[in-house]
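Input/output pair, single chain:
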Amino acid sequence: MSRRSRVRGAPSVALLLVGAVALAGCGIEPTAVVESGRAANVPVAAPQSADVLYFVAPDGRLAPSVLRDPRMSTGALLSRLLSGPGTQERGSGLSSELPARTDKMVGPVRVEYRSAKQVTVRLPYFLDAELSDTAKDQLVCTAAVSLDASAKSEVVLVTEDGPMSPLRCPLAR
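Output:
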């Protein structure tokens, strides 16, 4: 067999192989969707070099939102948190249980550092009703992580109605 006839036969052999592979797949029945339960839930630690706000995921759990802006003070972070989720957070399904800014706001968020392990956060409004536990956790975790990535700091929330009991972030490591 000459070299020329081998080269001419190569496309025929390739075509036969492709056809055989295609025919081998025949007879396989499609399957229905198989339910496997809820998606995995993985705790996400706050990066040590970024500011993090905590919003509420669709399942009701706290979810971090990492800010790409230059580093902010704890007071500025909490003010940003009180402004609610931005476009990117809302697009990710995040929400907030914190009251929206209203005329009841009486000033900026003020942060007083009591010690390396405790901070007081003075919020700029009166509360007609108690904050939900999730809303408190949003504030406490955002403040605690801004002080220390392990989120072990104790946070005292104070509104115009008075101070609340000291709280810790439930996500503390």
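The beta strands are 51-56, 62-67, 110-115, 118-122, 154-159, 162-163, 167-168. The chain has a mean pLDDT of 78.
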